[in-house]
Amino acid sequence: MDRTTSGWINGLVGVVIFSASLPATRVAVLQFDPLFLTAARAAIAGLLGLGLLFLFRERRPARTDLTSLFITALGVVVGFPLLTALALQYVTSAHSIVFIGLLPLSTAIFGVLRGGERPKPAFWLFSLLGSALVGGYAMTQGLAASPVGDALMLAAIVVCGLGYAEGAKLSRTLGGWQVISWALVLSLPVMLPLAFWTMPDSFAGIGAPAWTGLVYVSVFSMLVGFVFWYRGLAQGGIAAVGQLQLLQPFFGLAIAAALLGEPVTWTMLVITAGVILCVFGARKFAR
């Protein structure tokens, strides 16, 4: 298997894992404060990451890597989780699909600015078309306007794209799981005390769904997914593999159909097919 193909496979696994993140966050913030949820998921994942680094006796990152690690942490450990948790108090997870459709564009733009990539003009055409398909589909589902929620989601997409690109650039030399682990460890001195400070006075009224959501976003969304995602971006290219995020809403729909029995319509299938074509088109012209 060549490096590019391996990158696309790893990226796809990462996207599948991330697909349940927003629904899990939505469930969790119904009973957990957004600030506690953000701090707790980062603290739990940070402790796991610290354990992995210690177990495999990984070398410390060079001083020149610290700036990139802080940017990565700001984008994906703090910024995106906190902003989406706040936004999901105002909008539904379905509404957020509009903004998830913009994430591949954000990642590609920062891939150019921070990763030095230069996709061909046709790449941007396919990227814009795929984003339009995802956003257009979401808008047909009857979305209620919420300026505050929309502004928070837009900010989340910007910082997430930056965190993805910065972490992927660093993964080329440091390694995929090492990047997210070090970023989490760097955040630990702030996020662990913050988790205790924002902890609810009592957990008696917290139900199983909220706990399940917290565990999922802590272990899978915050750590395991990034192991595959950063490796995929580093191997297959930030701009190219980043287009796989266009499929994330539809993987979410498939998960909902399988676990919750929600219907999958012909419209969903047609739009998904169109998005897949855009992803393959973007891949062809990414370099």
Automatic annotation (TrEMBL):
<protein>
    <submittedName>
        <fullName>DMT family transporter</fullName>
    </submittedName>
</protein>
<feature type="transmembrane region" description="Helical">
    <location>
        <begin position="35"/>
        <end position="56"/>
    </location>
</feature>
<keyword id="KW-0812">Transmembrane</keyword>
<feature type="domain" description="EamA">
    <location>
        <begin position="149"/>
        <end position="280"/>
    </location>
</feature>
<dbReference type="Pfam" id="PF00892">
    <property type="entry name" value="EamA"/>
</dbReference>
<comment type="similarity">
    <text>Belongs to the EamA transporter family.</text>
</comment>
<feature type="domain" description="EamA">
    <location>
        <begin position="7"/>
        <end position="130"/>
    </location>
</feature>
<keyword id="KW-0472">Membrane</keyword>
<feature type="transmembrane region" description="Helical">
    <location>
        <begin position="210"/>
        <end position="230"/>
    </location>
</feature>
<feature type="transmembrane region" description="Helical">
    <location>
        <begin position="179"/>
        <end position="198"/>
    </location>
</feature>
<dbReference type="InterPro" id="IPR037185">
    <property type="entry name" value="EmrE-like"/>
</dbReference>
<dbReference type="InterPro" id="IPR050638">
    <property type="entry name" value="AA-Vitamin_Transporters"/>
</dbReference>
<feature type="transmembrane region" description="Helical">
    <location>
        <begin position="266"/>
        <end position="286"/>
    </location>
</feature>
<feature type="transmembrane region" description="Helical">
    <location>
        <begin position="237"/>
        <end position="260"/>
    </location>
</feature>
<feature type="transmembrane region" description="Helical">
    <location>
        <begin position="122"/>
        <end position="139"/>
    </location>
</feature>
<keyword id="KW-1133">Transmembrane helix</keyword>
<feature type="transmembrane region" description="Helical">
    <location>
        <begin position="94"/>
        <end position="113"/>
    </location>
</feature>
<feature type="transmembrane region" description="Helical">
    <location>
        <begin position="68"/>
        <end position="88"/>
    </location>
</feature>
<dbReference type="InterPro" id="IPR000620">
    <property type="entry name" value="EamA_dom"/>
</dbReference>
<feature type="transmembrane region" description="Helical">
    <location>
        <begin position="7"/>
        <end position="29"/>
    </location>
</feature>
<feature type="transmembrane region" description="Helical">
    <location>
        <begin position="151"/>
        <end position="167"/>
    </location>
</feature>
